[in-house]
Amino acid sequence: MTETSEIGPLARRRRGVAPGAFLIWITLAAVGGAVVWAIYGDGVRSILKLPPASAHWAITQTNQNQPTATNLNELVGLVKDLQASQQRTADDVRTTLQLLTSEQAATQAATKTVFDAMAALQAKVDALQRPMVPATKNPTPVAARKPPAAARPSPEATEPGQPELEPPGAPAKLVPR
Question: Is 159 left (phi over 0), alpha (psi -120 to 50) or beta?
Fold first, then answer.
């Protein structure tokens, strides 16, 4: 059993990427990207509608704390425009406020007119619903009733020129003249 097998060891150890080789590949990729950007960067910026690189990296030699005369003139012009815009807005608000107050006064006057008309109609309705009161203060006395006759005469006994008498019953209706 001393024979050696030709197969070799069963498990080989895997080797990872060496850190030095990884850094070399990263450096090469960065340098290649910079070269490609230098060649094609302006075309990519124009396609993406980005400002040119010179506008981004430009540094002026003036002091940033002190505005130049051009900046002052621009600021003065902007302030004047802002003040004019504020004045127009104030005038528009004032006009709108006057319009609203006049409309409110007209609405109140119309409401008062409708309210007065409604009160007059209500007074007329109340007057129609009240019972009628006679115009005279002393009512006409009702005639006293006569006691019924003991016997009623027969129709043959009455003379032809005299009208027939009505039997006693409901009182006669009095009509004022």
Answer: beta
Q: How many domains does the chain have?
A: 2
Q: Please tell me whether residue 116 adopts helix, strand or coil conformation.
A: helix
Instruction: Yes or no: say if 41 and 50 are a contact pair by the CB < 8 Å rule.
Output: no
Which amino acid makes up residue 158?
A: T
Residuewise pLDDT in 10s, the chain (177 residues) = 556 556 666 666 656 667 788 899 999 999 999 998 888 887 877 887 777 767 656 555 555 555 566 788 888 999 999 999 999 999 999 999 999 999 999 999 999 999 999 999 999 999 888 876 655 566 566 666 766 666 555 555 555 565 556 556 655 666 666
120 with 81, same domain?
yes
- Same structural domain for residues 123 and 74? yes
Phi, psi values for residue 130, rounded to 5°? -70, 145
Prediction pTM value? 0.31
Domain hosting residue 76, numbered range: 70-129
Separation of alpha carbons 98 and 90, rounded Å: 12
- What the block records as the tokens of 38 is 């230098």
